[in-house]
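Q: What would this chain look like folded?
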Amino acid sequence: MSRALRGGHPQVHLLPAAAEMVHATSFLLVLSLAVVAPVLSTKKCVLTGRWVNDLGSNMTIMAVNEKGEFLGSYHTAVTATSNEIKVSPLQGSQHQTDKNSQATFGFTVNWSFSESVTVFTGQCFVDEKGKEVLKTMWLLRSNVDSIKDDWKATMVGTSIFTRIK
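A: My prediction, written as structure tokens:
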């Protein structure tokens, strides 16, 4: 009586041609990933240009020089002051990266309409759809009248910027 009839598990035997097909298919899958993966990751995020964040603020970053330094402007969409919002200057630095990595950077915005400064730090990415994204964290330091008010002088947050076409 066979093992299958006695309640045992039958053994599966692949014919030599089927076994070769499984190996060939596996090989072709690995080969195609090796060829396609570098193409998918070759697009680098470029920091220069116009950007908008999740709150609607607009930023323009001018050319990055050979030292990684850049200038630009920031037009915030939000403020905690009653002052009229004005475009404010920014200056920053991009870490010089190799050809295969996405840039890290930092910049400072010296607000033209208030007594405060914000520093941003982040990284420039290309997402899975090929869209450039700046993921940042920021510290906003406001002027306070005395050291006893220091506790309320710094705010922390995050912003995600996408390129304006």
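The mean pLDDT is 83.
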